[in-house]
């Protein structure tokens, strides 16, 4: 007659550790790829940080190559922003400003960008109804690179 074996009450955790290590490697490899947003090399200027308003601002970013991006809200600043042309910027900004007439508007332009591009973008924003346009800069000493 066969003797019955006592049931094993231990749990084999080795497969769970293997799965956890594989997931850890996947997350470590993909985490740097999740950082998105428009990289703009801002000019340095002695300025005070903007106090976050009760409502999210409209932020227009212009890269060195002249590409224009629209973003609404400080929380979404690192998210992928919507790329627009100078022609569609007027319509987009006008729709946002029509819904929220007191929305703060900020322009974030690369310091190597020519002055005419910044001025024409500001002109388009004013034509869309923006009464005040703030310029975003980097505080002096915040970047270690020399320009």
Keywords:
5-stranded mixed beta sheet, 147 residues, Nucleotidyltransferase, domain 5, 3 helices, alpha/beta, single chain
- The tally of beta strands, per DSSP, is 5
Mean pLDDT: 75
Query: What CATH architecture do you see?
Result: 2-Layer Sandwich
What would you call the structural class? alpha/beta
Which strand order do you get reading across the main beta sheet?
3-2-1-4-5
The Rg value, from CA coordinates, equals 25 Å
How many separate structural domains? 1
Q: What is the terminal-to-terminal distance?
A: 87 Å
Helix content: 25-40%
Shape: elongated
Give the number of helices.
3
CATH fold-level assignment: Nucleotidyltransferase, domain 5
Largest sheet: 5 strands, mixed
Sequence of secondary-structure elements: HEEEHEHE
Low-confidence stretches: none
Task: Tell me the layout of helices and strands.
Layout: H1 14-30, E1 58-62, E2 68-72, E3 82-84, H2 86-99, E4 105-109, H3 115-127, E5 133-135
Parallel strand pairs: 1-4, 4-5
Antiparallel strand pairs: 1-2, 2-3
Structural commentary:
The protein is of the alpha/beta class. The protein has helices spanning 14-30, 86-99, 115-127; strands at residues 58-62, 68-72, 82-84, 105-109, 133-135. It has one domain (36-147): 2-Layer Sandwich (Nucleotidyltransferase, domain 5), CATH 3.30.420. It is 30% helix and 14% strand. The chain has a five-stranded mixed sheet.
